[in-house]
Amino acid sequence: MVKQKKFREIKYKILAKILPIFLVGIIRLLVVFVRFEFRVSQKVLEKFSNNEPFVVSFWHGELLLQPFLFEKYASKKKVWVFTSKHFDGEISSNVISYFGINVLRGSSSKGGTRVLYHAVKKIENNEYVAITPDGPRGPYHSIADGVVFLAQKTNVPVVVLRTFFSNAWELKSWDKLKIPKPFSKVVCVIKEPFMLESMELEEAKAYLKEKMEEDVCDF
To answer: 134 and 159 in contact (C-beta within 8 Å)?
Structure first.
């Protein structure tokens, strides 16, 4: 039993090193073979230019190309992305790191409160924090407390980031992860910032979900 556990740990460590290299290669390849359109709020660009922090919120199922987007728009800024302490979080962390993006490790079940307060410090230092409100385990398109907590605690706006695909594979995972097919079109939308400071928790979560589920893409 001990030997099996040790073997499993070694296997996970090896996979955690190898899989991210493979996934980074896929992301880089996809970027070459899809057509991008970017619809970015002018106010967000101004905030980047003025070094004004905000909380980025995006769905877990649209995370595949997020490292590329952060690299494109925030390459010279300090960006921190939440990942879980589970094995899939380890994979995500290693992938994100290849793009020069920082990682905050924690989830609702492991280190959640602690990592949220670390995120608060990052925002107070004029850095940017990105979080999937339905991650790391769902349910699909649910809203946990994290985004609201960060936005209200630091009194900064939330910016919703959406990625739409004209043609994509959809995995049978809880988050319905989407992978764009070659030569398809990908529309990346970075929406107008909005505040949550005057709302009760449930009201703020409902408003955030409404903003995130707006389908603003007609291709």
So the answer is: no
Query: What is the model's pLDDT at position 60?
Result: 93
d(CA 177, CA 175): 5
Are 160 and 179 in contact by the 8 Å Cβ rule? The answer is no
What strands lie across the sheet with 79-83, from one edge to the other? 35-40, 185-190, 158-165, 55-57, 128-131, 79-83, 102-105
Note the pLDDT tens digit of each residue in 161-202.
Answer: 999 999 999 999 999 999 999 999 999 999 999 999 989 999
Contacts of 66 (CB under 8 A, 6+ apart): 58, 81, 130, 161, 163
- The CA-based diameter of the chain, rounded to the nearest angstrom, is 58
pTM over 0.85: yes
Phi-psi region of 189 (alpha: psi -120 to 50; beta: other; left: phi over 0): beta
Pairing of strands 178-180, 158-165: unpaired
